[in-house]
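User: I'm writing a short methods note and want a consistent example. For YfjI family protein, I'll paste the sequence; you return only the structure tokens, no commentary, since I'll be parsing the reply automatically.
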Amino acid sequence: MSILLNAVKLHESLPRVGARFPRFVPCALLAAAVNEAEKNVQAPRALIFSGALTAISLACQGLIDVCKPTGQCVPTSLMLLSIAGSGERKSTAENVFLGPIREFQCLEYKKYREAFVEWNVQLEVWKEKRKVVLKKISKNTDKGINSSEEESLLSTLEKSKPVRPRQYKMVYDDATSEALFFGLYNNLPSAGLISSEGAGILNGGALNDLSKQNSLWSGDSITVDRVSVESYQISDSRLTVSVMLQESAFKEYMERRGEKSRGSGLWARFLVCHPESTQGTRVIGPEFIE
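Assistant:
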């Protein structure tokens, strides 16, 4: 009986559907950031809060997991869907929190390019050494000469093959599911599929493989089978998904693929917001005037 009463109290404490987005945020630092962004951008509060949650999820998912009371350990990765019309400042609300991450990614990309050039040079040198050893083994084989020394050298060479540097890529804006999965395998295993113009993500190929998307959300390993090249397995990867798009684009997607995505359980994993417009209510207050 007490469990039932507690459940009723919990349900009553939840905000009702259609209620205004709450102004109270338990974390003081997060509340200050959201309040400042809302004051400066004057976009819907729910939209700004969604941008903040995206950045938090992206930054924390590779470091923190959650242990449920049942003992199951699961990722902290979030999947967020924000529906807002044109002019609601979706890109601005997102960039307030994601901008520094994108800037850091650009700086790391420059370092990656330098490391890639160095790796390419080392790889070419390694290939030439390998050719020489293989040529010696081929000649010895033709002459019936033992080539155990060369074979040992070849084995040592194979172990010392230069390792390709990993690209520090955290944010994927517009990628096919194949490119996304290979990026998680070949580059950072923790990333985000994020776009303030999310129609490209829904209409593109990023969310085509729903079963693998659901597995990533749960922290399960997935295997990507390929015909032309070697297959690979992604283990212990984390993926944040944040899609901001207009209502017309969302309705169009749901008409085409809604039943499939709903049936797979994809939308059950999303935190969804569809806030009221702030257009026509934005004013420059005295605090902005010097």
